[in-house]
């Protein structure tokens, strides 16, 4: 049976049977004892150095910790990682940390969850000039059709969240242009449930929630190789 997939969240899933990938900030985790994720239960997790934290880590230590955590059965992806021109962290340093984590993802054979704020062109430059994992998901996409097209042509998957509940025209146009097999949905830090996001997305695409759930579950199995039965249980 197909499950709801929440590809990126900062909360424990409240939907029985859903599969969620919870974000773990490496900056916070390596300050704790050990390398276990700071939660228990049935969620998967991703781990990485967020661009906001690139100047607040010892990179070698953080990368070693991520490398170890990437071997845990519940680790589904490296992330969220990426670039952000809306924050004060030195951009060259952000890029250095991002590239190092992309290489680590390739070594680990894991997808990456990408944070991109005013940096889609920069992300594509890294994609073209450095080692980059084949499965990469731009989370929380809110861009326009042209940007979506550029990312999709370079192999990106696009994930959409709470913004679909309002869906301004440019976002709606971009969302509807994403092929079914390159689409994901998420809650991120929003107060809504993943079911709310699915309902909004299904309405915009004029399909049933069940059809959308089947498609995104198939995408998840293909990209992550994980089924509901494989997820850790509480």
Topology record:
Elements: E1 5-9, E2 19-25, H1 26-29, E3 44-48, H2 59-69, E4 75-84, H3 91-108, E5 112-117, H4 120-129, E6 136-138, H5 145-153, E7 157-160, H6 169-177, E8 183-185, H7 194-205, H8 209-224
Parallel strand pairs: 1-2, 2-3, 3-4, 4-5, 5-6, 6-7, 7-8
Helix pairs in contact: 2-3, 5-6, 7-8
What would you say this structure looks like, in words?
With 234 residues, this protein is of the alpha/beta class. It has a single domain (5-230), classed as Metal-dependent hydrolases (TIM Barrel, Alpha-Beta Barrel), CATH 3.20.20.140. It is 38% helix and 18% strand. Strands 1-2-3-4-5-6-7-8 form an eight-stranded parallel β-sheet. α5 runs parallel beside α6 (169-177). The protein starts with a strand and ends in a 10-residue tail after the last helix. The model has no long low-confidence stretch (mean pLDDT 91).
Helix content class: 25-40%
CATH level 1 class label: Alpha Beta
Q: Which class do the helix and strand fractions yield? A: alpha/beta
Q: CATH superfamily assignment?
A: Metal-dependent hydrolases
Structural shape = globular
- Domain module tally: 1
Number of helices: 8
- Biggest β-sheet strands, sense, barrel: 8 strands, parallel
Write a brief caption for the model.
With 234 residues, the protein is an alpha/beta fold.
Give the tags.
single chain, 234 residues, alpha/beta, TIM Barrel, 38% helix
């Amino acid at each position: 049976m197909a499950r709801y997939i929440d590809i990126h969240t900062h909360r424990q899933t409240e939907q029985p049977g859903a599969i969620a990938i919870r974000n773990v900030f490496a900056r916070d985790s390596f300050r704790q004892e050990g390398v276990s994720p700071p939660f228990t239960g049935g969620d998967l997790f991703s781990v990485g150095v967020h661009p906001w934290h690139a100047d607040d880590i010892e990179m070698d230590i953080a990368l070693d910790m991520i490398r170890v955590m990437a071997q845990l059965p519940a680790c589904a992806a490296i992330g969220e990682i990426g670039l952000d021109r809306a924050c004060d962290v030195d951009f060259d340093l952000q890029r250095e940390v991002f590239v190092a984590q992309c290489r680590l993802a390739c070594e680990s054979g894991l997808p990456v969850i990408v944070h991109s704020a005013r940096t889609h062109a920069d992300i594509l430059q890294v994609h073209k000039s450095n080692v980059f994992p084949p499965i990469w998901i731009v989370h929380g996409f809110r861009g326009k059709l042209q940007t979506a097209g550029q990312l999709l042509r370079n192999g990106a998957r696009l994930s959409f969240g709470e913004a679909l509940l309002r869906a301004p025209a440019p976002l709606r146009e971009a969302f509807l242009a994403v092929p079914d097999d390159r689409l994901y949905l998420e809650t991120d830090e929003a107060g809504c449930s993943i079911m709310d996001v699915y309902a909004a997305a299904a309405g915009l695409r004029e399909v049933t929630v069940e059809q959308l759930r089947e498609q995104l579950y198939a995408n998840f199995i293909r990209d992550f190789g994980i089924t509901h039965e494989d997820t850790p249980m509480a």
